[in-house]
Amino acid sequence: MPAVDLQSQNTFLYPASTVERAERSLVCSPFNLCLFVAMRHQSVPVGAIALDSGVKSGYTKRPLSELACDNALDWLIQVGILRREVDGQGITDSFRLTPLGRQVVEKLQESPKRSASWRDRLYNFLTRTFRLPF
């Protein structure tokens, strides 16, 4: 049986619209790219992201309450960028990147710094507000 090099292969191919939505959601989020780079290597708990610790670590653009932080992270879960970390006891308060999240973060790291335009913010708001509940 031939050996498979998992590092050089993309195991998941996503539609362009899915990648665009994920990238737009990531850019419009209140988080900095360095948070997602850290999530590539380890899980990050909400306590390290919320309040002043998130700003000190460079994870957030401004201090966020734990509720606001959790809501923003939940949206990124629904988009497909993040997943909650699970241990032997169940779901934890830590987050990691999904394969889609890894692709988007790599793309954003390679390209020049992209900021959200007013159109991106409006489209992200409408998508987030008027999505179907399933």
How many domains is the backbone divided into? 1
Contiguous low-pLDDT stretches (5 residues minimum) are: 1-5
**Which of globular, elongated, flat, extended, rod-shaped describes the shape?**
globular
Termini separation comes to: 41 Å
Instruction: Name the CATH architecture.
Output: Orthogonal Bundle
Gyration radius (Cα, Å) is 15 Å
CATH superfamily: Winged helix-like DNA-binding domain superfamily/Winged helix DNA-binding domain
Tally of DSSP β-strands: 3
Main sheet characteristics: 3 strands, antiparallel
> Please, what is the average pLDDT?
88
Our estimate of the beta-strand percent is: 5-15%
Q: Which CATH class applies here?
A: Mainly Alpha
Helix vs. strand class: mainly alpha
Percent helix: 40-55%
Q: How many separate helices?
A: 7
**Which sequence of strands runs across the widest sheet?**
1-3-2
Order of helices and strands: HHEHHHEEHH
Annotated CATH topology: Arc Repressor Mutant, subunit A
What does this structure look like?
It is a single chain. By secondary structure, the protein is mainly α. Helices cover 53% and strands 12% of the residues. It has a three-stranded antiparallel β-sheet with strand order 1-3-2. Helix 1 (16-28) crosses helix 6 (99-110). The protein is globular and about 35 Å long. It starts with 15 loop residues before the first helix and ends in a 5-residue tail after the last helix. Mean pLDDT is 88; it is low at 1-5.
